[in-house]
Design goal:
heterodimer, A: alpha+beta, five-stranded antiparallel β-sheet, 2 helices, 8 strands, 22% helix, B: alpha+beta, tRNA-splicing ligase RtcB, eight-stranded mixed β-sheet, seven-stranded mixed β-sheet, 17 helices, 34% helix, globular
Chain lengths: 151, 490
C-alpha cells in the first residue's frame, strides 16, 4: 500500500463521504488528506497551480491540527472561491516551556486555481469535516487517518 | 479499515407494527430506551449504523423519554439522519453535531395555479433559466451580494430582512416555521469566518442532495382533499416548486467552530460521549447558550436563503410565462427546517415542559390546535414537506396530535439513503441517468454529473414505504404525492 495516498470508503457513513488517507510521516499524511478532501470536489490531478496560499496553524493535538487544517481549506474554498490540487506541509513539534506539553506548528503551501465551471467539471461541494470516526492511527508504514466529510 | 456493522447487535422489542424499542439495558450508559419507527421490511433493511447511533443518542445526559430514529433513518455522523433527541433545559445538553453542519437545512414548497399541460412544453427553458438564477455547485455564490452589516441583519432577522428589502411578499412570513426568524439570534456569537463564508452565498443552492424541483400532482396523488386544499393543492395536474437547501457556508462554519469548542469543553463539565461528533455542553452553560444564539443566526440565514431563492424563482416564472407571480398564485405552502435544535414546549408524562428538541434529518410535525401555527394550519396540523430523490418524487404530509405525544412533534424529512455516495458513483453514470430521466419526462440540469449519479433514485429507500410507515404509525399523515418534471441540482 506504499503508493496509495488515500481511498474513499464505500461502506461507511451512507449520507456523506468517508476516506482514509495515508502517509509515511505526518507531513505526507496531512498532504494526502488535503488532496482527498479536494478530490471529493474536483479531479485534483487537473487542478493547475495558478494560485498559492500559505496556511499557518498551531495546536497541542495532532488530530485537532489536522481537523483545523482541513476546515481552514474548506473556509478558503468558499471565501476565495479556490480549489487546491497540491500541498506542501511541514509540521514541527516542540515542547511548551511552561506546560511541557507538545506543540505542533504547521506551515502549508497550497497551490490551486479559481473555481470556474466554464473550465472544468466539479463534483460535490464539501460542507465540513466531521469528528465522526476522525482518528489518526500509526501503521507499520507510517500514519493513517479516517475522515468523514459532510456533503 | 472500518467495517460497516452487518446487523443490529441489540435486542429489539416490538411495540406495535411500526414502533420498535431497544431497551435502556442494551448498551452501557443508555439513559433512556431507543425507539425506531419502521415497517418490518424497513427495519430488516435498516442500515446497522442506525442502531449504533440511536443508542449513542440514548446515552446523552438529560435526554428525555426516548432517543428516536424514524423510518427514513440511515447512518449519519454522530446522530443517525432521521434522528430526534430532546433534552431537559436544566439537566440536559445541546449538541452542534446532532443539529448538523447544515443548520436549518430544510424544505420549502411553493404553489402555482399553472397546469402541467402548460408547463411541460416549456420545461427545458424553465429549468435552464432557473439554473442560471439559482447558483449551484462547489463554492456557489453570487445570487445576491450583501455587505457585512446587511448580513448581520439577515442573521438576526431572517426572512423579515428579505421582505423589507423587496425579496418576497409580506404574506410569505406566515408560511414559514418560526415565521422565518428563530428568536435569540445573536450575531456576536458568530465568528468572523462564518460571516465571511456566508456573505456572497444568499440565494444559492449548494450541492449534494440539494435541489430545486418543478413537480406535478399526478392523477390519484391527492389522498386527503380537504387538507390538500388548505395547503393550496386544488387538483390534479397542478404544478408546484420544491426547494431543498440550507444555511450554506455560514451554517457549516458555525457548526465547525462550535463542534471544536464543545469537543474541548466537555472535560470541564465531566461529560463523555460515544462519538466525538456528539460533543455537547449543558444547555444552560456559556458554551450552550452561545451556540444556541449562533445556531439561530445560521438558521435565520437559511430561511432567508430559501426566501431569496423563492424570489428569484418567481422572477423566472414571470419571465417564462409572461404573467405576474401573483397571477400565477405562487404562494408558499410552508417552509420547514429539518436540521435544527429548538426550545419548544412539549408534554412529558402529562406535564408541560420546555425542552431543547434536536431534529437531525427530521421535520417538525405539530398537530392541529398547536399555538405555534397560523389559523389555517391550526385546523389541519402543519404541512410537512418530505423530499424524495429526484427520480421518485416527494410527499406533502400533515402533522398530528400523536406526533406531539410520541415523537416530540417530529417526523421524517426524506426517503433516506440505502447506498453510500461513493458506491452510487461507482454504480451509476450521471450522463446516462440524465438521459434516462429525460425519457421518463424529468428534465434535470446539474452542476456535476458525478453528483447527479450519487442522487440516483436507487440509492434511496422507497419513499412511499417510508411515508406510509409514519402515516400508519399516526405521526404524519400523507396528503399529496408530488412527482418531478424538472430539477436543478448542485
Amino acid at each position: 500500500m506504499t503508493n496509495v495516498k488515500f481511498r474513499f470508503l464505500d461502506n461507511v457513513a451512507i449520507a456523506d463521504t468517508a476516506f482514509e488517507a495515508f502517509g509515511k510521516n505526518e507531513n505526507e499524511l496531512f498532504e494526502n488528506a488535503a488532496t482527498a478532501l479536494f478530490e471529493e470536489m474536483v479531479d485534483t490531478r487537473k487542478v493547475s497551480a495558478k494560485i498559492k496560499k500559505k496556511i499557518k496553524l498551531r495546536n497541542e493535538n495532532l488530530e485537532n491540527l489536522l481537523y483545523d487544517f482541513l476546515s481552514e481549506l474548506i473556509y478558503i474554498k468558499d471565501v476565495d472561491g479556490v480549489v487546491f490540487g497540491e500541498f506542501k506541509v511541514k509540521i514541527r513539534s516542540a515542547k511548551d516551556k511552561k506546560t511541557r506539553n507538545a506543540i505542533y506548528d504547521l506551515d502549508a503551501d497550497c497551490s490551486g486555481e479559481k473555481i470556474d465551471y466554464s473550465k472544468k467539471e466539479f463534483r460535490n461541494d464539501v460542507k465540513a469535516v466531521t469528528l465522526h470516526l476522525f482518528k489518526i492511527e500509526k501503521t507499520k508504514k507510517g500514519h493513517k487517518v479516517t475522515v468523514v466529510l459532510d456533503i | 479499515m472500518i467495517q460497516k456493522p452487518e446487523k443490529n447487535p441489540y435486542k429489539i422489542n416490538k411495540i406495535n407494527d411500526y414502533v420498535w424499542e431497544i431497551p435502556a439495558t442494551e448498551k452501557k450508559g443508555m439513559n433512556v430506551p431507543a425507539r425506531i419507527y419502521a415497517s418490518q421490511k424497513l427495519l430488516n433493511e435498516m442500515d446497522a449504523g442506525v442502531f449504533e447511533q440511536v443508542t449513542n443518542l440514548a446515552c446523552m445526559p438529560g435526554i428525555e423519554k426516548y432517543a428516536l430514529a424514524l423510518s427514513d433513518a440511515h447512518w449519519g455522523y454522530g446522530s443517525p439522519v432521521g434522528g430526534v433527541a430532546a433534552f431537559d433545559l436544566d439537566r440536559g445538553v445541546i449538541s452542534p453535531g446532532i443539529t448538523g453542519f447544515d443548520i436549518n437545512c430544510g424544505m420549502r414548497l411553493i404553489q402555482t395555479n399553472l397546469n402541467v399541460k402548460e408547463v411541460k412544453p416549456r420545461i427545458k427553458e424553465l429549468v435552464n433559466e432557473l439554473f442560471r438564477a439559482v447558483p449551484t455547485g462547489v463554492g456557489a455564490k453570487g445570487a445576491l451580494k450583501v455587505n457585512k452589516s446587511q448580513f448581520i441583519e439577515v442573521m438576526e432577522n431572517g426572512v423579515e430582512w428579505c421582505i423589507d428589502n423587496g425579496y418576497g411578499w409580506k404574506a410569505d412570513l406566515k408560511k414559514i416555521e418560526e415565521y422565518g426568524k428563530i428568536k435569540g439570534a445573536d450575531s456576536d456569537k458568530v465568528s468572523e469566518k462564518a460571516i465571511q463564508r456566508g456573505l456572497n452565498q444568499l440565494g444559492t443552492l449548494g450541492s449534494g442532495n440539494h435541489y430545486l424541483e418543478i413537480q406535478e400532482v399526478k392523477k390519484g396523488a391527492i389522498f386527503d382533499e380537504k387538507t390538500a386544499k388548505a395547503f393550496g393543492i386544488t387538483g390534479e395536474g397542478q404544478v408546484v416548486v420544491m426547494v431543498h437547501c440550507g444555511s450554506r457556508g455560514c451554517g457549516h462554519q458555525v457548526c465547525t467552530d462550535y463542534v471544536r469548542t464543545f469537543d474541548s469543553a466537555m472535560k470541564k463539565y465531566g461529560i463523555t460521549v460515544n462519538d466525538r461528533d456528539l460533543a455537547c455542553a449543558p444547555f444552560s452553560s456559556e458554551e450552550g447558550s452561545s451556540y444556541y444564539a449562533a445556531m439561530a443566526c445560521a438558521a435565520n440565514n437559511a430561511f432567508a436563503n430559501r426566501q431569496v431563492i423563492t424570489h428569484n424563482t418567481r422572477k423566472v416564472f414571470e419571465k417564462i410565462f409572461r404573467k405576474s407571480a401573483e397571477e400565477m398564485g405562487m404562494y408558499i405552502t410552508y417552509d420547514v427546517a429539518h436540521n435544527i435544535a429548538k426550545v419548544e414546549e412539549q408534554v412529558v408524562d402529562g406535564k408541560k415542559k420546555k425542552l431543547v428538541v434536536h431534529r437531525k434529518g427530521s421535520t417538525r410535525s405539530f398537530g392541529p390546535g398547536h399555538s405555534e401555527l397560523i389559523d389555517i394550519y391550526k385546523k389541519t396540523g402543519q404541512p410537512v414537506i418530505v423530499g424524495g430523490s429526484m427520480e421518485t418524487g416527494s410527499y406533502l404530509c400533515v402533522g398530528t396530535q400523536k406526533a406531539m405525544e410520541e415523537t416530540f412533534g417530529s417526523t421524517i424529512h426524506g426517503s433516506g439513503r440505502t447506498m453510500s455516495r461513493t458506491k452510487a458513483k461507482a454504480e451509476f453514470k450521471g450522463e446516462k441517468l440524465q438521459q434516462d430521466m429525460e425519457r421518463r419526462g424529468i428534465y434535470v440540469k446539474a452542476a456535476s454529473y458525478s453528483g447527479l449519479a450519487e442522487e440516483a433514485g436507487s440509492a434511496y429507500k422507497n419513499i412511499s414505504e417510508v411515508v406510509e410507515t409514519m402515516h400508519n404509525a399516526g405521526i404524519s399523515r400523507k396528503v399529496v404525492a408530488l412527482s418531478p418534471i424538472g430539477n436543478i441540482k448542485g
